[in-house]
Amino acid sequence: MRLHRLDITAFGPFGGAQQVDFDELSAAGLFLLHGPTGAGKTSVLDAVCFALYGAVPGARQSGQGLTLRSDHAAPGTRTEIRLELTVAGRRLEITRQPPWARPKKRGSGTTTDKAQSRLREYDAVAGSWKDLSRSHQEIGEEITQLLGMSREQFCQVVLLPQGDFARFLRADAEARGKLLGRLFDTHRFAEVEKRLAERRRLAEAQVREGDTELLADAHRMHQAAGDAPALPDLAPGDPGLAEAVMTWAAIARSTARERLTIAHCARTAADSARAAAERDLDDVREVARLQRRFAEARERAARLAERADAHQEARVRMERARKAEAVAPALDLRESADAEHRRAAAADARARAVLPEAAYADAGAAGLAAAARKATEELGGLESARRAEQRLAELQAERTGLDRQERADEDVLQDAESWLAAWDTTRADLRSGIETAQEAATRAEHLAVQREPAQKRLQAARLRDQLAGDTDQAQAQALVSRERATDARAHWLDLKEQRLQGIAAELAAGLVDGEPCAVCGATEHPAPARKIAGHVDRQAEEAALAAYQRADELRTEDERRLGVVREALAAATAEAGDTPTTQLVEQVEELERLHTEARAAASGLHASREALAQAEGEHGRRVAAQQAAEVRTASRAARRDTLDRERAVLERELAQARADAGSVSARFAQLERRAARLTEAADAARNAEEAAQRLKAADARLADAAFRAGFDTPQAAADALLDGAAHRDLQRRLDAWQSDEAAVRAVLAEPDTAAAAQQPPAGLRAAEQAAESAAGRLQGAVSARDAAARRCAELDRLSARAAAGVRRLGPLREEYDRVARLAGLAAGTSADNERKMRLESYVLAARLEQVAAAATVRLRRMSSGRYTLVHSDDRSGRGRSGLGLHVVDAWTGRERDTATLSGGETFFASLALALGLADVVTDEAGGVRLDTLFIDEGFGSLDDQTLDEVLDVLDSLRERDRSVGIVSHVGDLRRRIHAQLEIVKGRTGSVVRQRGAG
Fold it and tell me: Residues 837-879: pLDDT tens digits?
């Protein structure tokens, strides 16, 4: 990295614009940055750091960048830092403007503008600058990747603060560890320590949990075993717990199986006794059953003898009922004829009761029929009068219709006159609506032409906003891929370095006695190198290389995607412009609203034209209706006169036909009712006479049938007849008697039943009690045997689960021992770690050893070969070892702590340490070349000879084409170093004065 030019405006103590030409200052290799206290020497270095990282070093960074603005600057001058530099072969220009409170353009007060950043690269072929990015995050990531250092590392490596390194020399191991940890980013090793400690705690908890489960199973086995021996008195985590529990479980299982065998034998004996008792009980029950059967048969025979008379009466009743069944049809016929005769007589009485004349009360069927025929003849004579009456009603209806039509035509004429009076105004309004709709249609077409470009611009603006978010995501993904590729590369290089360190063991693995060595050619191999733990072979290195290549390809792809998104964003921005999306949305919505209103107004054009056409049609219809109504009014007068003359004639004819009735229709209805009643009475009288004849015939047939069946009178036959339910009940009782009598005779004739009746009464109760006692003893034996079997099964199940838990816990306990040992080693608490050195301290110690070796090269020159810096891993007091730093004095040959150096010795020792640390951090960052360095203060503590030697060392840096800027108050340096950058302070702010080597 080489600085070329720095432009400072309104920054720190610089109220105006200042320029620093580092190319001119770097021509001499060494240049001096000096000025009074508070003039702004450190502000120049802050400006360089701010341009690169957007922040100033350490404690000087505060707020959001507002404090960086110069108090001497004019209100309208914006703070700006522009740095031109070359890094990794690329010439870049970085411009940063922190946020500032500028005066408002309107009114009083201030408004805060956001920070701005810009990164440009010089194209040597085109001879011009091209923009790369305006994003703070993108620029920060790009510069960090190119330099390979964070802001903290840059401030320690490029801006060498001597006071910090002097404190580093005198600091204890903890303070040195914090500084080295920030520079070399060793937090991942501290994370390894934490991870191992967490795994140790987790494994320990799992082991204790397993022991707790094992003891819980043991307590369950003790509860299941009953009166088993007590459990071993051990706690979770105690050694030998598993063996003691499993031994106790084996004893408990053996005892339970012995008890199961005893219970099984007792159950077999009880089962045999119960079977014998059951057989005796069955024999006694059979004898008792036969004795009860014989006694019940004797009782049933006695009951049958008592009911013998009733059985004989039932048989006689059944015989008479069978004879009466032959008379049943005649009885049914007579009953039917009697019912029909009663119904006909009642109908005849009802029909005679409604006749109008009392003379017909005793008339026969023939007289009633003759009177009905006479009434029917009178009805025929009134038919023509009925037609005349109907015609008169039609005339009246027609006259009423003419009156109604006359009123309707009057309404039509009045409505037509009122509507036609407003016709001119209505037509003018409709034509005006058509003209308004035509104007709205024209306006809608113009707005439609303006709407489409506005919508396209809005879509482009939304795409621009979306792509802006996608650009941030793609940039974040590219940064993640870049970090992963960097980590993969570092991992591959670490494995490669480890393999090279152990390559001797890898080559020694292929040595064969008697065959020459591929390296030295010897045929004897007395002490071949051995592979140590964690040896890295070729496959591991190639796998790490492949992983790095994949990560690098993914990084390239993500960066390509980022470029595509940026191009799309630029295209969308070019189409949409800088107008905010919300403003474009408002414009489009306003056009949409106006267009919608115009279209809504224009949509009424067709309706207005149709309304005009309908109104004109209505006008024609109204005129025609008016004329037709006038014609109808004239024709109705003639028709009304004709109707009046015809009505007068008909009324005279109807007066003669009505007689005493109100109308011809009433007279016709009166005669019609009389004829119907007479006809009905004649039919009823005829039916009553016929029913009386049928009843007489049925009585004669019934008397003959009763005599033939053997009954004295028909009533006796009717009394002997049974209905269906009574017949079935009587037959059921007769059948039941016969069945019971047969069953009793069969039981009394059985040999076994008769023999059992001769024996004494059976002792059933005693036999049942003996069987119940045997069953109870068997149930107790079965319960005892089942309980013993369950106890054995439960003990087997719990023992199997405990054994499985012991087997499962074995590897876990081994894992716990291994992890605990590794965690103790990494944390420095293990007895195997003799120096009590943590893993992170071990890594930092290796880096510190590299720094001490690099610093010694320059320290020996500055001290004329007297001092050498060496790393020490001895413990200091009760602390841990690993980060000690000593100086070896060649004059005395003794090694002592760096805190014993004098002020001048501490300065050049810290300077050598800073330069060495810069070299190591640079190599750690990927070998980025640092062509410009700054050293801050400390030269006043050196004598002239030492100062010459220190300046010679710094001057030797030019051999690598480096330039070194010295920040100092020492006046002698102004005479020794010709290239100078002087900071002059004044009331209006500081200014820069530059002088080259000439």
Answer: 777 777 777 777 887 887 788 778 777 788 888 877 766 555 4
Task: Give whichever of 648-662, 663-677, 933-947, 962-976 has the largest mean pLDDT.
Answer: 962-976
**397, burial (CB in 10 Å: exposed 0-12, middle 13-18, buried 19+):** exposed
Secondary structure (DSSP) of 576-633: HTT--HHHHHHHHHHHHHHHHHHHHHHTHHHHHHHHHHHHHHHHHHHHHHHHHHHHHH
Cα separation, 811 vs 600, in Å, equals 83
Rounded Cα distance between 855 and 858, Å, is 6
The Cβ of residue 525 has, within 10 Å, a number of other Cβ atoms equal to 16
Q: Which residue has the higher pLDDT, 557 or 528?
A: 557
Least-confidence region, from 17-21, 353-357, 825-829:
353-357
Give tens-digit pLDDT for 261-281: 888 888 888 888 878 877 877
For residue 111, list its beta bridge partners: 102
How would you list the strands of the sheet with 894-897, edge to edge?
Answer: 867-872, 884-889, 894-897
- The rounded distance, in Å, linking the Cα atoms of 231 and 222 is 7
Q: Which of 886, 865, 981 is nearest to 934 (CA)?
A: 981
In angstroms, the CA 747 to CA 292 distance is 11
Distance CA 881, CA 844 (A): 11
Concatenated DSSP letters for 765-823?
HHHHHHHHHHHHHHHHHHHHHHHHHHHHHHHHHHHHHHHHHHHHHHHHHHHHHHHHHHH
Percentage of the chain exceeding pLDDT 90: 4
pTM of the model: 0.40
pLDDT per residue over 607-637, tens digit each?
Answer: 777 877 887 887 787 787 777 777 777 777 7
Please count the other Cβ atoms lying within 10 Å of the Cβ belonging to residue 284: 18
Residue 521 CB neighbours (<10 A): 7
pLDDT single digits (tens) 711-739: 777 777 777 777 778 777 877 877 777 78
For 758-770, the pLDDT digits (tens) are 777 777 788 778 8
Stretch (H or E) spanning 932: strand 932-936
Contacts of 308 (CB under 8 A, 6+ apart): none
H or E segment and range at residue 261? helix 241-306
Distant-in-sequence, close-in-space partners of 388: CB < 8 Å, separation ≥ 6: 650, 653, 654, 657, 664
C-beta atoms surrounding 696 within 10 Å: 10
DSSP 962-973: -EEEEE---HHH
- 703: tokens are 């008397």
Q: Compute the half-sphere exposure of residue 727: CA atoms within 13 Å on the CB side of its CA.
A: 12
Q: Rounded CA gap, 206 and 217, in Å?
A: 17
| Identity at 509, one-letter amino acid code | A
pLDDT band at 63 (very low <50, low <70, confident <90, very high): very low
Q: How many CB atoms lie within 10 A of CB 554?
A: 18
> How many angstroms separate the Cα of 390 from the Cα of each of 383, 397, 598, 644, 662?
11, 11, 69, 16, 15
* Residue burial 356-365, b: 16+ Cβ < 10 Å; e: rest: eeeebeebeb
DSSP string, 285-350: HHHHHHHHHHHHHHHHHHHHHHTHHHHHHHHHHHHHHHHHTTTHHHHHHHHHHHHHHHHHHHHHHH
* Maximal CA-CA distance, the chain: 180
Q: What is the pLDDT of residues 208-266, one digit of tens each?
A: 777 777 777 777 877 777 776 777 777 776 666 777 778 878 888 888 788 878 888 88
Helix (H/G/I), strand (E/B), else coil: 90? strand
Rounded to an integer, what distance in angstroms lies between the CA atom of residue 135 and that of residue 478?
A: 14
